[in-house]
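Propose amino acids for all 200 sites.
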């Protein structure tokens, strides 16, 4: 039996979402089909509104609907500490921990030569002018191979600027993403961060 073209198109589009394979996309498509029309219209409006209203902060590249994000606009934040993360979801995870009062910089990914992601595909260049001598930069990329490689690359760029470069403690599981860590573990990882050994 062949699916109707509109159902095939819906499954195809859903399967393009991260973490959604063909089987999950099919289940979601059938679930959406069973929902009332007003629920589907509300979902459609939410998607379109988010696409229209949200953009990246011009300073830290976090997601915001204002000119600058809440963190960059808050004068009470510690301006001498910048926490570098992979994705906007990592900012939310760290904020939930309640252990951090500095600024952020969101790379929107990690270095991954196998997938064609080099430094120019990430928000690395805009980070450098934000760093002043003596400032601390916390490298809070994930504990994956790509996350570690990205942290090492950033360390090489930041040390000549006179920055104090530190890495989050490894209370996080190896290969883990920050957004999936609980608040206590993430808070301890930040509090237990260590200054990285200077590269020769």
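Proposal:
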């Amino acid at each position: 039996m062949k699916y109707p073209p509109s159902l095939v198109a819906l499954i195809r589009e859903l399967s393009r979402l991260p973490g959604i394979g063909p089987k999950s996309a099919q289940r979601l498509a059938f679930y959406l089909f069973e929902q009332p029309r007003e629920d589907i219209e509300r979902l459609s409006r939410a998607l379109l509104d988010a696409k229209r209203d949200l953009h990246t902060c011009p300073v830290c590249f976090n997601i915001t609907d204002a000119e600058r994000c809440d963190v960059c606009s808050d004068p009470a934040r510690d301006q001498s500490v910048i926490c570098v993360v992979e994705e906007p979801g990592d900012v939310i995870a760290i904020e939930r921990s309640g252990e951090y009062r500095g600024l952020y910089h969101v790379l929107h990914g990690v270095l991954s030569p196998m997938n064609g992601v080099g430094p120019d595909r990430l928000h690395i260049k805009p980070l450098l002018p934000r760093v002043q001598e003596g400032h601390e930069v916390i490298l809070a990329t994930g504990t994956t191979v790509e996350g570690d490689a990205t942290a090492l690359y950033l360390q090489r760029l930041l040390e000549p600027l006179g920055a104090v470069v530190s890495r989050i403690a490894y209370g996080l599981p190896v290969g883990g993403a920050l957004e999936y860590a609980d608040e206590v573990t993430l808070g301890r990882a930040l509090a237990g961060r260590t200054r990285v050994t200077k590269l020769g």
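The helical segments are 5-14, 22-34, 37-53, 88-97, 145-158, 183-191. The radius of gyration is 20 Å.
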